[in-house]
Write a structure and sequence with these properties.
The chain is an all-beta fold and 369 residues long. It is built from no helices and 29 strands. It has a single domain, classed as YVTN repeat-like/Quinoprotein amine dehydrogenase (Methylamine Dehydrogenase, Chain H, 7 Propeller). Its main location: membrane.
Length: 369
C-alpha cells in the first residue's frame, strides 16, 4: 500500500492477488481507478494471475512501480483527464528469478515481495523470495546498481532510512539486516531468535536512530542502531519465550508500523499488532499507550499501514477493506480529564486516552501490500 505524497492527489494505492492495482481518493472515498498490471498465469492454490505483491508511487515521474509474483517489475504512467485516470505501461523487466517450491507452489522464488522508493534519489529497492535485494536507477533505464546478498531465506520487506543512505531488510531467515546503499554486504545483522521477520520500520529518538521489527509469530522488537542491540520487546505482542507452534499463534500480514504525528519527526508513535489482531499505539520512549487499542477490525488482519500527513490520518489495509483513522490527539469533550475538587487521592485522575474510530472506506478482496 502507498499514499501519494502530493496533497493535491489525495490517493491511496493498494495491490491485489488478481494482478490488479487500485487507487482510491481518501477525501471523497471513491475509487479513482483499478487496472490490470499482470496477466501472467499464477502459481498459487487459487490459480490467480500472479499477485501484485507491492506497488508504490514515484511521484516526480507520475509513475507507479509494481512488483509481481512472476519476478517482473512493472512501471506504469498515469494521467488525470477531468475525473478519469488513464494508465499506460512504460516498462516491464525481469527483476528476480530462480525456481523454488513453497507449500507446493513452484516458482515462488521469483516473487517480488517488497518495493521501496528512495526519498530523494532516482532509486528503487526490490526484495524477493530468491533471497536477494536489488537497487535500481529509474533515471538510467532501470539499471541495476547493486545486488545485495546475505539473507538465507525469503526477503519479505525493505525500507530506506530517513536520510536515504541506508536501508533495512526483514527476512524469513529470522534476521533483519542493515545495509549501506553503496556497499553490497550488510553492515549489521539483528538476530531475532526463531522468528521469521516480516516488516521493519525506522524511527528516531533524539539523535539516535532505531528500528522496530515485526515477525510472523507476533513478537515486535525495538533495536538501537548505534549499538545494534535489542532494547525492548513491545507490550501487547507475543512473548519471546512462549511456545508458538501452530497457525493459531501466527500473525499474518503487517504487525508493526511507525507514524510521525509531527512534520519534524520528533513525535513518532509505534504501532503493534497482537495475536488477537488488536492494534496498539505506543509512545516511542516510555512505550505507554498513546491511544486506546483498536480491536474491532472485522475485515481481517492488518496488511499494511500508511500515514496521511495533511489530514493526520492513519490508513490500515486489511484483506477486505481500507480503514482511515483520525490520529489527532485532541481529546473529545467526554474523554477529557475528570479532575475536580471532590476527587480523593485514591482516584485515578490520569487523562483518558482518545478512542480511535476506524472509518471503512473500501470493500474488496486480498490486499497484499
Amino acid at each position: 500500500m502507498d499514499v501519494h505524497s502530493d496533497p493535491l492527489k489525495p490517493w491511496i494505492m493498494a495491490s491485489h492477488a488478481d494482478g490488479n492495482v487500485s487507487i482510491w481518493d481518501y477525501q471523497t472515498e471513491a475509487k479513482v481507478s483499478e487496472f490490470r498490471v499482470s496477466d501472467v498465469e499464477g502459481t498459487d492454490t487459487w490459480h490467480n494471475t500472479h499477485w501484485i505483491c507491492s506497488a508504490k508511487f514515484i511521484a516526480p515521474k507520475d509513475w507507479i512501480v509494481a512488483g509481481g509474483g512472476d519476478g517482473y517489475i512493472y512501471v506504469v504512467s498515469y494521467k488525470m483527464r477531468e475525473l478519469n485516470m488513464t494508465t499506460q505501461q512504460v516498462k516491464k523487466f525481469k527483476a528476480h528469478g530462480g525456481i523454488r517450491f513453497f507449500m507446493g507452489e513452484k516458482d515462488r522464488g521469483k516473487w517480488v515481495e517488497s518495493l521501496a522508493v528512495h526519498p530523494t534519489q532516482p532509486y528503487v529497492l526490490s526484495a524477493s523470495m530468491d533471497n536477494l535485494i536489488k537497487l535500481w536507477n529509474h533515471d538510467s533505464n532501470w539499471d541495476c546498481i547493486w545486488s545485495f546478498s546475505g539473507h538465507d531465506s525469503f526477503v519479505k520487506h525493505v525500507m530506506f532510512s530517513p536520510d536515504g543512505n541506508h536501508f533495512a531488510s526483514a527476512s524469513d531467515d529470522c534476521t533483519v539486516k542493515i545495509w549501506n546503499i553503496r556497499k553490497p554486504k550488510a553492515i549489521a545483522t539483528l538476530a531475532c531468535g526463531q522468528d521469521a521477520q516480516q516488516h521493519v520500520a525506522y524511527f528516531s529518538r533524539g539523535d539516535s536512530q532505531y528500528v522496530i521489527t515485526g515477525s510472523l509469530r507476533g513478537s515486535a522488537r525495538v533495536w538501537n542502531l548505534q549499538t545494534n542491540k535489542k532494547t525492548k520487546i513491545l507490550p501487547g505482542t507475543t512473548p519471546e519465550n512462549k511456545d508458538l507452534e501452530g497457525l493459531d499463534y501466527e500473525v499474518h500480514g503487517c504487525n508493526i508500523g511507525v507514524i510521525n504525528l509531527d512534520q519534524d519527526n520528533t513525535n513518532p508513535v509505534l504501532i503493534t499488532v497482537s495475536k488477537d489482531m488488536s492494534i496498539s499505539f505506543l509512545d516511542q520512549t516510555s512505550y505507554a499507550p498513546r491511544f486506546e487499542e483498536l480491536n474491532d477490525l472485522s475485515r481481517g488482519p492488518p496488511q499494511d499501514f500508511a500515514y496521511i500527513e495533511s489530514t493526520r490520518s492513519l490508513v490500515i489495509a486489511c484483506p477486505r477493506g481500507i480503514a482511515i483513522v483520525d490520529m489527532s490527539e485532541q481529546m473529545d469533550d467526554d474523554m477529557s480529564d475528570n479532575t475536580n475538587d471532590d476527587t480523593n487521592e485514591d482516584t485515578d485522575v490520569r487523562p483518558k486516552r482518545r478512542r480511535l474510530e476506524p472509518k471503512w472506506m473500501a470493500d474488496y478482496v486480498m490486499i497484499k501490500d
